[in-house]
Amino acid sequence: MREERVSDYFAAILLVMGSLYVGQWMFGFAGWYDSHDWKTSLMFYVSWKNLLAFGPLIWLYFRSLTNTNFRWSRKYWWHFLPLALTLLQPITIFLYDFAYWLLVRGEAFTYFNNTRGPAAEWDNTFSSPVFYVIYGVSVLHLLGYLIWTLIDYRKYRSYLSREFSNAEQLTFASLRLTLFLMMFGVLATIFLDIHNLIYSTSYIDSWDSFFVMSLFTYFAAIQLLAINPQMTRALRFLPSEKLEDIQPAVIADESVVRSGGNTYPELSGWATKLEERLKLHQDFLNPDLKLGELAGAIRTNSSVLSRVINGAYDMNFNDFVNGRRCEAFMEAIKAKEHHRHTLLSIALDCGFNSKSTFNRAFKKHTGKNPGEYVKEVD
User: Fold this and answer.
1) I want to staple 287 with a disulfide (CB 3.0 to 4.6 A). Which of 72, 250, 346, 353 is the partner?
2) Is pLDDT above 80 for 226?
3) Residue 362: its pLDDT value, please?
4) Is 290 helix (H, G, I), strand (E, B) or coil?
5) What global pTM score does this model have?
6) What are the angstrom distances between the C-alpha of 189 and each of 68, 195, 197?
7) What pLDDT does residue 115 have?
8) Range of the domain at 347
9) How much is the pLDDT for 251?
10) What is the pLDDT of residues 208-223, one digit of tens each?
């Protein structure tokens, strides 16, 4: 609430829903179910298992996390329409028993030790088929949103490679792991619920499905807290946004581009400007370099520069910049800088922000590990 990040609100609601799901079972074992007072009434009148809320919340959390410009609008309400429809039943039951039965008719509750009214009694006695239909739809609904979010995550990874030179810290690998674990948790919960439906004779036997849900809610909380919001300020990811499709040109000799060759005349002019800019200012040494910043430096936009890099060099922005950083590292090694500094120190000076990113980029660029290259030079 202090930071007023939209993604944090979605994360908080998501964790509350997960806690509510497990809450009914835990409150029951804490004595609420058998207390025969207002606590027992809450067990029947609160909607505890709102699975239809999980999918939209997860998807909206991802959308708001990866786009600082995300704002809530009316178009997102329809995602919660299935939840609203299923909530009509418990709301109707509550209004009938408390507004009509207690207040209008003035009659007391007589069911389950005077803790629930006739509507709640009907719900607990005759509405089991409705419950299982809603449960089945809820599970499919959640799996659909998880798959949708994972598809958007793949697009997001492409967006990072296109827009950022050091994108590793923004990949949110833990979030992807959480999504996969959620899918596993949902499937495990379904299996356990079906097993309990067939073989168990008491709600006590269903502890395992609630344990799975509580475990994944707790794990999700840890993952959500681990994400540093300071890193997300530059993110402007839109899954529906696409650059113009182009056929990349594989140019064996970069001098064709630098000399203004006519292989791809619509790109060669901007490629020449890009080469001149990098030779003079070495922008790639900035570990936080972004596509938009470099495009602005040569007086064009991100879309044009992305087309230039993809078309003229057959690589994305991330690989292109890291390739220049690798070249700078190799020049430093040839100048014997590794005799005075560590390899990591040189890599950081060349624009890399971590050892793992450097090792992976260098291997991809040269086919060798940094240590192997140093031995060859020495």
Assistant:
1) 353
2) no
3) 92
4) strand
5) 0.75
6) 34, 10, 12
7) 94
8) 255-377
9) 34
10) 878 888 888 888 888 8
Q: Of 200, 232, 264, which closes a domain? A: 232
Cα(166)–Cα(151) distance, rounded to whole angstroms?
Answer: 22
**β-bridge mates for residue 111, sequence order:** 116
Tens of pLDDT, residue by residue over 35-49, are: 999 999 999 999 998
Q: At 258, list the tokens.
A: 């630098």
Q: What angle do CA 102, 107, 113 make, to 5 degrees?
A: 95
> What phi, psi does 72 have (nearest 5°)?
-70, 135
Token readout for 90 is: 């418990």
The residues, ordered by sequence, that sit 6+ positions from 140 with a Cβ below 8 Å of its Cβ are: none
Q: What is the mean pLDDT of residues 52-77?
A: 91
- CB under 8 Å to 216, separation ≥6 — which residues? 18, 181, 182, 185
CATH of the domain at 276: 1.10.10.60
Cβ density class 268-292: b for 16+ within 10 Å, e for less: bebbbbbeeebeeeebbbebebbbe
Shared domain check, 325 and 184: no
Q: How far apart are alpha carbons 186 and 208 in whole angstroms?
A: 13
Closest CA to 138 of 193, 179, 95: 193
> Using 50, 70 and 90 to split pLDDT, how confident is the model at 55?
very high
Write the burial class of residue 11 (CB in 10 Å: 0-12 exposed, 13-18 middle, 19+ buried): buried
Angle at 312 between CA 311 and CA 317, to 5 degrees: 75
- Quick check: 264 pLDDT over 70? no
